[in-house]
C-alpha cells in the first residue's frame, strides 16, 4: 500500500511539474509581445460606445448597437428591407460599437497580462480607468443589455443573435478577476463593476433574446455559455456557473459534436473552416473556465463517448495543414485562418501535448484582419492559465 501511494504521489508530482513547465514556456514565449502591447495600452484613453452613434439605432446613447454582418441591400428593392447573404460581410454596416468593445477588451487583456508578469500596479490603475468608463461613469457607461445588437435595416431593431457580440467582454471580466486584489483597486468601484455584470447576467438569462440565444443549436449557443460562464465566475454566481456547466455536458457536447469530433452545424455553413475553429475555441474555453477537480470538463464524456479531446483531435491536422481540409473552402477569409488558436494552448497545457504547444507557437499571434478579430475573443491566454 505504501509503495502504491508513493507511486501515485510521484506521478502526480511529475504531472503537475509538466503542467507548470508548459505554463512557464507560454509565459516566456509571450513576454515580449505582452510588454509591447501593454506599453501601447498605457498610451490609450478610454473610448466607449457613447463616442459613436448610428442614426439607424432605435436605442439611446448608452445602448450598444450593431448590424448583422451578412445582411445587404436588396438589389431589386434598394430602399427596402435588407436580405441575407450568409458568410458575406457587408462592409457598410455599423460596427463602431463592436470595434470599440474589441479595443477595450485588448487594452484590459494586455494590461492584466503585464500585471501578472510584473506585479506593477500602474497597469492595474490604467486598466481600471477604462473599466470605470464602460461600467461606472454616468456619462460614458454602457447599459447592461443588448437590445439593439445585430439589427437589420427594415427587419429588426435588434436580435438575440447579437448577444454573440459581447464575447469581447470576456477578457475584460477575466482581467478584472486577475487584477481585483491589487491594493490600488477601489472596492466601491469594484462592487459597481461586478453589479454591472450581475445585471447583464440577469438580462442574458431572462430576456427573450437571451433565452433564444442560450437555445441556439450552433456556435451561438456555445458562445452564450462561454461568455456567461466568464461573467458568472467574476461575480461568484455559483448558480449560473452550474447552469453553464450543465449546458456544456448535456446540450452542447452531445447535440453539436459528431462521432468523429467535427461540428456538422458549422461544416454546413458557407465558412465551414472558420466556424469549426471558432466553435472549437469556444468549447475548449468553456472547459478552461469551468473545470474544477470535482467537475472536470476536460475529461467529461457523453454516454456515446463524445468529449472535447475528440473535437481537438479532429481539427488539429487541419490547423497544422488546412490544405488537407476535406470540406468546402470558406467563401471569405479562407487565407486568414488559422491563427494561434486558444484551443491549442489550453488543450496543450491540460493534456501536456508538446506537438499542440509547438503548433500554437508557430502560428500568428498578431491579428490584422477585422473578421478574424471579431471571431477571436481570447487574445491573452496568460490571464486564463
Topology at a glance:
Blueprint: H1 2-42, E1 65-67, E2 71-72, E3 83-84, H2 96-118, H3 121-135, E4 148-151, H4 170-179, H5 187-206, H6 208-214, H7 219-235, H8 238-256, H9 264-267, H10 272-290, H11 308-320, H12 342-351, H13 354-362, H14 370-374
Parallel strand pairs: 1-4
Antiparallel strand pairs: 2-3
Helix pairs in contact: 1-2, 1-12, 2-3, 2-4, 4-7, 5-6, 5-7, 7-8, 7-10, 10-11, 10-12, 12-13
Quickly name the level 1 CATH class: Mainly Alpha
Output the radius of gyration: 21 Å
The dominant shape is: globular
Assign the CATH topology: Glycosyltransferase
Q: How many helices does DSSP assign?
A: 14
Q: Find the CATH superfamily.
A: Chondroitin AC/alginate lyase
- The total tally of domains equals 1
Summarize the biggest pleated sheet.
Answer: 2 strands, parallel
- Estimated structural class: mainly alpha
The share of residues in helices is 55-70%
Average predicted confidence as pLDDT: 94
Could you explain the architecture of this structure?
The chain is an all-alpha fold and 385 residues long. It has one domain (20-383): Alpha/alpha barrel (Glycosyltransferase), CATH 1.50.10.100. Helices cover 55% and strands 3% of the residues. The protein has helices at 2-42, 96-118, 121-135, 170-179, 187-206, 208-214, 219-235, 238-256, 264-267, 272-290, 308-320, 342-351, 354-362, 370-374; strands at residues 65-67, 71-72, 83-84, 148-151. The strands form two sheets. It has a two-stranded parallel ribbon with strand order 1-4. α5 (187-206) packs antiparallel against α7 (219-235).
Amino acid at each position: 500500500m505504501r509503495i502504491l501511494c508513493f507511486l501515485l504521489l510521484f506521478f502526480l508530482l511529475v504531472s503537475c511539474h509538466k503542467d507548470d513547465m508548459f505554463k512557464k514556456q507560454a509565459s516566456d514565449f509571450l513576454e515580449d509581445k505582452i510588454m509591447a502591447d501593454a506599453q501601447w495600452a498605457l498610451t490609450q484613453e478610454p473610448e466607449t460606445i457613447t463616442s459613436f452613434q448610428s442614426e439607424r439605432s432605435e436605442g439611446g446613447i448608452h445602448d450598444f448597437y450593431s448590424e448583422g454582418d451578412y445582411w445587404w441591400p436588396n438589389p431589386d428593392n434598394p430602399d427596402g428591407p435588407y436580405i441575407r447573404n450568409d458568410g458575406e460581410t457587408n462592409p457598410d454596416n455599423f460596427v463602431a460599437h463592436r470595434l470599440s468593445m474589441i479595443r477595450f477588451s485588448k487594452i484590459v487583456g494586455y494590461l492584466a497580462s503585464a500585471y501578472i508578469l510584473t506585479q506593477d500596479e500602474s497597469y492595474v490603475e490604467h486598466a481600471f480607468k477604462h473599466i470605470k468608463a464602460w461600467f461606472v461613469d454616468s456619462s460614458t457607461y454602457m447599459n447592461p443589455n443588448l437590445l439593439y445588437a445585430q439589427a437589420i435595416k427594415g427587419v429588426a431593431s435588434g436580435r438575440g443573435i447579437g448577444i454573440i457580440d459581447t464575447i469581447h467582454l470576456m477578457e475584460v471580466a477575466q482581467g478584472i478577476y486577475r487584477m481585483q486584489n491589487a491594493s490600488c483597486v477601489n472596492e466601491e468601484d469594484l462592487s459597481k463593476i461586478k453589479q454591472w455584470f450581475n445585471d447583464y447576467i440577469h438580462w442574458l438569462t431572462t430576456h427573450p433574446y437571451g433565452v433564444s440565444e442560450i437555445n441556439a443549436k450552433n456556435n451561438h449557443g456555445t458562445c452564450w455559455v462561454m461568455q456567461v460562464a466568464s461573467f458568472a465566475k467574476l461575480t461568484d454566481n455559483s448558480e449560473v456557473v452550474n447552469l453553464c456547466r450543465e449546458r456544456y455536458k448535456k446540450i452542447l457536447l452531445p447535440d453539436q459534436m459528431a462521432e468523429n469530433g467535427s461540428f456538422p452545424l458549422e461544416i454546413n455553413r458557407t465558412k465551414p473552416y472558420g466556424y469549426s475553429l471558432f466553435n472549437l475555441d469556444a468549447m475548449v474555453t468553456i472547459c478552461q473556465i469551468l473545470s474544477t477537480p470535482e467537475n472536470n470538463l476536460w475529461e467529461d464524456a457523453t454516454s456515446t463517448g463524445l468529449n472535447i479531446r475528440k473535437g481537438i483531435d479532429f481539427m488539429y491536422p487541419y490547423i497544422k495543414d488546412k490544405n488537407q481540409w476535406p470540406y468546402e473552402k470558406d467563401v471569405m477569409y479562407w487565407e486568414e485562418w488559422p491563427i494561434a488558436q486558444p484551443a491549442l494552448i489550453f488543450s496543450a497545457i491540460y493534456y501536456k501535448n508538446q506537438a499542440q504547444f509547438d503548433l500554437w507557437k508557430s502560428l500568428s499571434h498578431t491579428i490584422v484582419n477585422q473578421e478574424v478579430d471579431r471571431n477571436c475573443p481570447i487574445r491573452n491566454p496568460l490571464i486564463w492559465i
